[in-house]
């Protein structure tokens, strides 16, 4: 019978062919040239008072349950000129904002379900592009970071009470301040 010539070829010859195919010497230029773009986060005018990893939940009133909002870095940022302080949290991979609100004198943290790593608080949040009253729960990776978060948050709420005698700003001025932030 007739045998297929490809199947009866010696092994060495086959390897040589493969080696010849691999090194073509052709220069392949990228089709698209990417420009370097300066990305502004709106955080350039702020100093980070806290920067830790956390998991954030928001309370879904309709479903009466906690929904995960994101895993990432939570920052407490103080504006260099206005001295306003806000909490911003971005998801790790997408950098999508999952919390963005000012820390005001009226805010206080509550312990969540006896956990020494979780805190709950109410805020008027702007992460979805509109002001919304939210109940947040944050879970930090360690007791140490949870304590740091609580201490920083409460210290700021207290200092805001001292620095603004007229109390909390109106929702409108809060929206104005936050909407400029990306």
Tell me about this structure:
The chain has about 180 residues and is an alpha+beta fold. It has a single domain, classed as Pleckstrin-homology domain (PH domain)/Phosphotyrosine-binding domain (PTB) (PH-domain like), CATH 2.30.29.30. Helix content is about 25%, strand content about 35%. It has four helices and seven strands; from the N terminus they run ααβββββββαα. It has helices at about 5-10, 10-20, 145-165, 170-180; strands spanning about 45-60, 65-80, 85-90, 95-100, 110, 120-125, 130-140. It has a seven-stranded antiparallel beta sheet with strand order 4-3-2-1-7-6-5. Residues about 165-170 have low confidence and may be disordered.
SSE layout and pairings?
Layout: H1 5-8, H2 11-22, E1 46-60, E2 65-79, E3 85-91, E4 97-102, E5 110-111, E6 118-125, E7 132-140, H3 143-163, H4 171-179
Antiparallel strand pairs: 1-2, 1-7, 2-3, 3-4, 5-6, 6-7
How far apart lie the N and C ends?
A: 75 Å
Q: Assign the CATH superfamily.
A: Pleckstrin-homology domain (PH domain)/Phosphotyrosine-binding domain (PTB)
Largest sheet, described in full?
7 strands, antiparallel
Q: Specify the CATH class.
A: Mainly Beta
As residue ranges, the low-confidence spans are 166-171
Helicity level, as a percent range? 25-40%
Number of helices, where a helix is a run of at least 4 consecutive DSSP H or I residues: 4
User: CATH topology, anyone?
Assistant: PH-domain like
Q: Mean of the pLDDT scores? A: 82
Structural shape: globular
**Helix and strand element order:** HHEEEEEEEHH
**What percent of residues are in strands?**
25-35%
The assigned CATH architecture is Roll
Domain RanBD1: 27-162
GO cellular component, one term: cytoplasm
Region (Disordered): 1-25, 158-182
Biased composition (Basic and acidic residues): 1-11
């Amino acid at each position: 019978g007739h045998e297929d010539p490809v199947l009866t070829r010696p092994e060495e010859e086959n390897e040589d062919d493969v080696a010849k195919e691999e090194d073509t010497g052709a220069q392949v230029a990228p089709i698209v040239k990417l420009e370097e773009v300066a990305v502004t986060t709106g955080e350039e005018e702020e100093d980070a008072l806290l920067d830790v990893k956390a998991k954030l939940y928001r309370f879904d009133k309709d479903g009466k349950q906690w929904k995960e909002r994101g895993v990432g870095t939570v920052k407490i940022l103080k504006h260099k000129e206005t001295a306003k302080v806000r909490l911003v949290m971005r998801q790790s991979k997408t950098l999508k904002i999952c919390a963005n609100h000012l820390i005001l004198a009226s805010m206080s943290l509550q312990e969540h379900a006896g956990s020494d790593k979780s805190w709950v608080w109410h805020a008027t949040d702007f992460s979805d592009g509109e002001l919304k009253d939210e109940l947040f729960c944050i879970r930090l990776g360690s007791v140490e970071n949870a304590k740091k978060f609580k201490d920083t948050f409460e210290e700021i709420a207290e200092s805001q009470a001292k620095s603004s005698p007229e109390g909390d700003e109106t929702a409108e001025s809060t929206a104005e301040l936050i909407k400029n932030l990306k």
